[in-house]
Design a protein that fits this description.
The chain is mainly alpha-helical. Helix 9 packs parallel to helix 11. About 40% of the residues are buried.
């Protein structure tokens, strides 16, 4: 019996040691996966990693089993959104029953991931917020940061760029505090996306190039795919849809290598958008057909509205107007559900053009009004976001200044005590430090004031031509109408449009068209008087406001504008162009209900001028 017991103990000891080694290996692999240190470049590598994790899972260890299960939730359902959503729901209930808050937080974040695909990103926000709440209760910095990055991505897609940026910046700080450089570097892609959507294209490009170097260094194809996708979006939004093709094709190839059908669908949808921007409508429809199949096969319904919108734009471009009209209606229902104002504004503008082509002017006008409402909502959102970002920047700098001041005050007191014990020279040093602090405070205040002025100027100025943008010129016109009626003075406006400007873009490209617009604006400004105001309404259409000017005076200014543009002959890249403009002039009358009514009359006169042969002036009755 003694010999048998000795033999059993000798056999059990290596088994126990092996179990300990497996437990340590399991924890290390989970940690590396949580930190994003394992590049999963294909479905086979995902399956292999999950199999390895399961093999290392200690038997009868419920705590570690839940960790395996939440990791399985994130990794195993990339091509099955419905399955992932159901699995996450079951994981939440099991974690609650076990009182495992860390597992519950991870399952909540996982459910948000698949909820965003099954319905909309807005529906996913409550799950992300619950996961973050639990993580804050646990004071788990890495888990808080993970939840913030997912919530930030959802908010960014919904147009809440300021809120999203705050989440990404807080996540960045938490990753850096935890020493998780891999996750911090990956988070830069999300920050770059925010800057792209805010129009900070140069800054976004710098972040994306830095992220690409890091993704290539760690051989992470999934991250390389995301960076290429963002580079494609960046090129399209900069107005160079042709430059978007190469990075988007790379994104598609990488997505196919990883086996992520959802990513394949996203790349195909982005390529379709680029094709529509390049007026390659048949090509766009091919991409959309393949994208729809990929999204359908993985139960992803979040892109239904965008698929319908891009398909409608393609069919409208091919002249299939009735089909496009039906698809615009489908797109509207889906985009309205997600409440994405950027997509709604694009939809109403394109549908208005289609309605006009179908001979439905009232429907086209109704869509233009809806677009104006969407644009107004976007403008309000942009203003709120700029204010929020400025407030965040000011609060951050104020906290930093207060921390510096507290530290300096502490140092000052120590120096004063030392001065009482030693020499009075320390007192002079304390005064010097106070002076430095005052200069620092003044410098920070001056920098904040300059930044505020720059942001205010950007909000009122057309970035291409440097003149007032539509929002600013319309605001000035409202004020001018009220002033003219109060003081019984004249007020006249001119609507002008560059004749056949689309041919310039089509023949020479949009960059040349932009340079031509700048030269045309310079020619127009040379024809205006000191108090006249010129603003860009959009595209090649401009509004001129003429205070203290009657209709006859307005016609004289309009003729100077027409003559200046005709004589300008803008030259771009050695190409001399001869352009003309058509103008409509309207004087404020008692019957006008306001600025909008005055502009409509001038706009009607402009279209009368274009109908009568262009390069001419018409006065509104």
């Amino acid at each position: 019996m003694l010999l048998l017991a000795t033999a059993l103990c000798a056999h059990a000891e290596p088994a126990a040691q092996a179990s300990v080694r497996d437990t340590v290996a399991f924890d290390q692999l989970i940690r590396r996966l949580d930190n994003g240190e394992v590049a999963l470049n294909s479905q086979a590598s995902v399956d292999h990693t999950l199999d390895r994790l399961r093999a290392l899972l200690p038997s009868n260890d419920a705590y570690r089993r839940r960790r395996y299960e939440y990791m399985y939730c994130f990794l195993a359902f990339d091509n099955d959104a419905n399955g992932g959503y159901a699995y996450a729901g079951g994981g939440i209930e099991q974690a609650r029953q076990a009182g495992d808050l860390e597992a519950e937080a991870n399952f909540q974040i996982c459910r948000g991931l698949y909820q965003g695909r099954v319905t909309t990103e807005r529906d996913a926000l409550p799950a992300y917020e619950e996961g973050i709440r639990i993580a804050r209760r646990l004071e788990n910095g890495r888990l808080i940061a993970d939840g913030l990055t997912w919530r930030g991505s959802a908010q960014s897609l919904l147009g809440e760029q300021a809120k999203a940026l705050f989440d990404f910046l807080e996540a960045q700080r938490l990753y850096e505090v935890a020493g998780n450089t891999t996750a911090a570097q990956s988070n830069l892609i999300s920050i770059a996306t925010i800057y792209r959507r805010l129009g900070e294209y140069d800054k976004a490009g710098d972040y994306l190039r830095q992220s690409m170097v890091f993704a290539q260094r760690k051989q992470d194809k999934q991250e390389q795919m995301v960076v290429n996708l963002q580079l494609g979006f960046l090129a399209t939004e900069r107005g160079d849809a042709a430059a978007a093709v190469v990075p988007l094709q790379r994104a598609l190839a990488l997505a196919r290598e990883t086996g992520s059908r959802q990513s394949v669908g996203a790349a195909l949808l982005a390529l379709a958008e680029s094709s529509n921007a390049r007026q390659q409508y048949a090509e766009a429809l091919q991409y959309l057909e393949h994208a729809a199949r990929e999204f359908q096969d993985v139960s992803d319904k979040s892109n239904t509205g965008m698929l319908a919108l891009q398909s409608a734009e393609a069919h409208a471009g091919l002249g299939q107007r009735e089909l496009a009209a039906r698809e615009f209606d489908v797109a509207e229902a889906n985009v309205r559900h997600s409440n994405n104002m950027r997509y709604l504004a694009e939809l109403y503008e394109e549908r208005s053009k289609n309605q006009e082509a179908l001979g439905k002017p009232s429907a086209a006008l109704a869509d233009l009004k809806l677009k104006m409402k969407a644009d107004a909502a976007l403008a309000r959102m942009a203003k709120t976001q700029i204010t929020t970002l400025m407030s965040y920047q000011f609060d951050t700098e104020r906290r930093e200044l207060e921390n510096r001041k507290l530290a300096a005050d502490k140092m000052l007191k120590e120096q004063q005590l030392a001065a009482l014990e030693r020499v009075r020279s320390w007192q002079r040093l304390a005064i010097l430090l106070a002076g430095v602090l005052l200069v620092l405070m003044l410098w920070l205040a001056w920098r904040q004031w300059r930044q505020s002025r720059r942001l205010h100027r950007l909000a009122l100025t057309d970035p291409l031509t440097g003149i007032s943008n539509r929002r600013h010129i319309e605001h000035m016109l409202h004020v001018a109408v009220d002033e003219a009626r109060r003081t019984h003075r004249w007020l006249t406006v001119i609507m002008l449009d560059i004749d056949h400007f689309k041919r310039v873009n089509d023949r020479h490209g949009h960059p040349v068209g932009d340079q031509v617009l700048e030269q045309i604006v310079q020619a127009c400004q040379g024809a205006l008087r000191q108090f006249d105001r010129l603003g860009r309404m959009g595209g090649e259409e401009f509004l001129v406001m003429l205070p203290d000017t009657d209709l006859e005076g307005g016609l004289q200014v309009a003729e100077r504008l027409r003559a200046n543009v005709a004589a300008a002959r803008p030259t771009v890249a050695g190409i001399e162009l001869q352009l003309s403009i058509s103008l409509g002039v309207a004087q404020l009358r008692h019957a006008d209900t306001g600025a909008a009514s005055l502009v409509r009359r001038a706009d009607a006169a402009l279209y009368h001028a274009k109908d009568n042969g262009r390069n001419r002036i018409e006065a509104a009755p």
